Amino acid sequence: MVLPHEPEFEQALEELSTSLQPFLEANPQYKKALEIVQVPERIVNFRVVWEDDNGVPQVNRGFRVQYNSALGPYKGGLRLHPSVNLSILKFLGFEQTFKNALTGLSMGGGKGGADFDPKGKSDSEIRRFCVAFMTELSRHIGSDTDVPAGDIGTGAREIGYLFGAYKKLKNEFTGMLTGKGLTWGGSFIRPEATGYGLIYYVEHMIAKACPEYSLDKPTTLVAISGSGNVSQYTALKVIELGATVLTLSDSKGSLVAEKGYTKEFIHKIGELKLKGGSLETLANEPGYTYHAGVRPWTLVPTVHIALPGATQNEVSGEEAEALVKAGVRIVAEGSNMGCTTEAIEIFEASRRSGPGGVWYAPGKASNCGGVAVSGLEMAQNSQRLAWTTKEVDNKLKAIMAECYGICLSAGTKWSGEELTDGVLPSLLAGANVAGFIKVADAMKAQGDWW
Ligand code: GLU
After folding, report:
1. What are the E-state strand segments in 371-413?
2. What's the CA gap between 27 and 142, in Å, rounded?
3. Where is the Glutamate/phenylalanine/leucine/valine/L-tryptophan dehydrogenase C-terminal domain (predicted)?
4. What structural domains and CATH numbers belong to the chain?
5. Which atom, in ligand 1's list, is nearest to the CA of 96?
6. Which atom of ligand 1 is nearest to the CA of 374?
7. pTM of the entire structure?
8. How wide is the angle at C-alpha 393 spanned by C-alphas 389 and 397, nearest 5°?
9. Is 263 in a helix, a strand, or coil?
10. Per DSSP, what are the bridge partners of residue 142?
11. Which listed residue, 18, 225, 310, 399, has the most CB atoms within 10 A of its CB?
12. Which of 79, 98, 192, 194 to probe ligand 1 with, by most ligand atoms within 8 A of CB?
């Protein structure tokens, strides 16, 4: 057996290629586009040397994958995590390319980051790292070239340090990063956008597949994984609408709320996470049970909506089976490639079994709200204007509705299945085919394939 050289990237490519089969059989000329689009336009790979609090030099590997610029400047986050390598950043940049296409905004795809671990670092160490990282990255980005943003490990604080470093190096105040502070070029709703957008997308899915589990009912049970930016705002939106959030998690374990999380408790977790704390410190809170070393999916006997929001491959085949047994009807990713191939197969087989089955939405569709509001931040920066919270939230809702509609219609046309007996279209096929056609057509118009 040949072991995959870039396992995460190969998984993402395989998923897209499989989804595209019915479309490519009917339109064989696009096979060339698939061969070309899978190769990143450019990868920048660099050394980052920074000084720790003891004056000792530390070294990390920095990257920026400029995947595709057919639809606009490269756009996508920066991941700071010890696991970061080229396979992970290529998979993320590849997914980002099609995700950004599904937002309908003018953004190409990119991703970057470093194998730097912000956990346990002082504020000064993080600042020095960000300055060192931007010293090199600044040569390769710009508001019309490549516009990075946050991802795992890169939040408001890091974006601030990175922006400050760029501004000093170039003597320019431009919108070359998104996720900026509200008083210095950021957009309202950007921090909330991925989580809120996920729920706006899920509301459309519920209305079509299982209106009995609408999110205004406390009897609708929601399991969420993760406890970072995406999961916090996902949970807050679910709570605001009225449904019950049963779980959150981090890399060490899961915290189950017997009667459901409260808004106040989510804020408390937000503060804890900012200080680098972990959920295990909340193990003795009344009403909450902590489970070390397990993800949420097997911990709740009944769940209607499951929302992976932590990282890639965070739902295994067995966990997917447990969710199906627990009665899950909607699985929508807030994370990128949250479900393993095995988990997706289980959910898709359940969907094909007809009414009452699971309906799965891939991250490139259901979590596109984050980068969509980044796109709106770029638009506001270009105009040197700031839109109101309501304006941005309404635009986000419209983008998620449009994205859902595109996935539904491409899924109906191109999943290669007979959709009889009330079987719902595959949103996986829909997202992959619709995103691919948009990117491929722009590439063709620009002479990238023929
Ligand atoms: N990291 C986010 C994503 O995976 C947001 C990227 C951005 O805003 O550019 O879509």
Report:
1. none
2. 36
3. 187-447
4. 7-12+22-174 (3.40.50.10860), 193-361 (3.40.50.720)
5. 10
6. 8
7. 0.98
8. 175
9. helix
10. 146
11. 225
12. 194
Q: What angle do CA 320, 403, 102 make, to 5 degrees?
A: 95
Q: In what order do the strands lie in the sheet with 253-257?
A: 288-292, 253-257, 244-250, 221-224, 305-307, 330-332, 359-361
Across the beta sheet with 74-80, what order do the strands follow? 42-51, 57-68, 109-114, 74-80, 146-150
Query: CA 341, CA 355: separation in Å to the nearest integer?
Result: 23
Work out the number of other CB atoms within 10 angstroms of the CB of residue 337. Answer: 25
SS3 9: helix
Closest CA to 435 of 389, 345, 366: 366
**Distance in angstroms (rounded) separating the CA atoms of residues 364 and 312:** 12
CB atoms < 10 A from the CB of 74, how many? Answer: 29
Identify whether the C-beta of residue 339 lies closer than 8 Å to the C-beta of residue 320: yes
Is there a contact between 245 and 265 (Cβ–Cβ < 8 Å)?
A: no
pLDDT in tens, 115-166: 999 999 999 999 999 999 999 999 999 999 999 999 999 999 999 999 999 9
230, 195 contact by CB (below 8 A): yes
Name which residue sits closest to atom 10 of ligand 1, judged by CA: 371
For residue 225, the model assigns a pLDDT of: 98
Cβ of 149 less than 6 Å from ligand 1: yes
Is-contact 255 289, C-beta < 8 A? yes
Residue type, 107: M
Q: Give pLDDT, residue 420.
A: 87
Q: Are 290 and 253 in contact (CB under 8 A)?
A: yes
* 75 marked as part of a ligand binding site: yes
d(CA 93, CA 110): 5
What is the structure's pLDDT at 3? 61
* Residue numbers annotated as active site: 111
Tokens of 206: 């519920």
Q: Is 183 labelled as part of a ligand binding site?
A: no
Closest CA to 132 of 144, 114, 155: 114
Q: Tell me, what's the pLDDT at 421?
A: 86
Phi-psi region of 225 (alpha: psi -120 to 50; beta: other; left: phi over 0): beta
Average pLDDT, 10 consecutive residues per value, the chain (450 residues): 82 98 98 98 98 98 98 98 98 98 98 96 98 98 98 97 98 98 98 98 98 98 98 98 98 97 98 94 97 98 98 98 98 98 98 96 98 98 97 98 98 93 96 98 98
Pick from 68, 88, 96 the residue to mutate for probing ligand 1's pocket: most ligand atoms within 8 Å of its CB.
96
